[in-house]
Design brief:
6 helices, two-stranded antiparallel ribbon, binds zinc ion, single chain, 29% helix, alpha+beta
């Protein structure tokens, strides 16, 4: 288990001591991928940065980062994401390559995206090693979260996209990859994966996105534009996930009760 230092303060308010199990990805979001018979009650964390999948039966949490007041504050933004990921009332966009969703609280959804990558960055849990925002961005995002300030369209811009699966294969998409740092046209960003095949690009760079992405970023339009990423089974994400799960199944067969799979630091 993690050691809580007496002097460590909540990373958000910097007043209270961390006193709760702060989930990096909200339990409510994890529940959306929960319940398929194959992995009932268990979660397997996989990511490019992990040498092997990590078991986290109740999700990844960190006792050393947040106080309950601040965790509850971020919980409001989590709720916006939980509601968003369950929406199915997509309208086709005239471009043919995207759908739209109306009546979305852009501010809360963007604060969720910022808070998720921030939590992934400040935790020392190994499955989130793929995200390290650096001190400047960690501190800037913490300020914005404290003030419930989602910034303008160029601050931590969010572009939302989603894979698809044929109806008979929807269970194939009941996984979530951990966030990972990436680059697009030289701009630094974090790829964020959410239940129901969402992939969000969250810009962590003072330079703006190119015009085409800028105008579809969260908050640029009244509606939320969801880019269609095509069939999930043809994506590199599916390949990573598939390989990890197949590898893990073998190991589970060998050592079904091996507690060492419940890694902690
Ligand atoms: Zn706090």
């Amino acid at each position: 288990m993690e050691q809580v230092s007496d002097r460590a303060l909540c990373r958000l308010c910097q007043i209270n001591q961390p006193n709760i199990k702060a989930h990096i990805m909200a339990e409510g979001l994890m529940k959306l991928i929960h319940g398929q018979p194959k992995y009932d009650g268990r979660f397997i964390m996989v990511g490019k940065e992990l040498k092997k999948p990590v078991r986290r039966p109740t999700g990844s949490y960190d006792r050393t980062i947040l106080c309950s007041t601040c965790d509850n504050k971020l919980g409001e933004y989590d709720l916006a994401a939980i509601e968003f990921c369950q929406r199915a009332d997509f309208k086709p966009h005239p471009s043919g390559v995207a759908s739209t969703l109306s009546d979305v609280d852009h501010t809360k959804l963007k604060l969720f995206a910022m808070s998720y990558i921030w939590r992934a960055s400040i935790t020392s849990l190994s499955e989130y090693d793929g995200v390290s925002l650096g001190e400047r961005h960690e501190s800037k995002i913490a300020d914005m979260l404290r003030n419930s300030d989602a910034g303008n369209v160029d601050d931590y811009s969010v572009v939302i996209s989603r894979f698809t699966l044929p109806e008979e294969r929807t269970t194939w998409g009941m996984h979530v990859l951990n966030p990972v740092t990436n680059r697009l046209d030289g701009i630094n960003l974090v790829d964020v994966y959410l239940p129901n095949l969402y992939k969000w690009k969250v810009k962590v760079d003072s330079r703006p996105f190119k015009k085409e992405l800028r105008k579809i970023s969260l908050g640029a339009l009244n509606e939320v534009l969801v880019l269609n990423m095509g069939d999930y089974t043809e994506s590199k994400e599916f390949t990573i996930m598939h390989a990890a799960i197949m590898g893990d199944k073998k190991r589970v067969k060998q050592k079904v009760n091996d507690k060492s799979l419940l890694t902690s630091r």
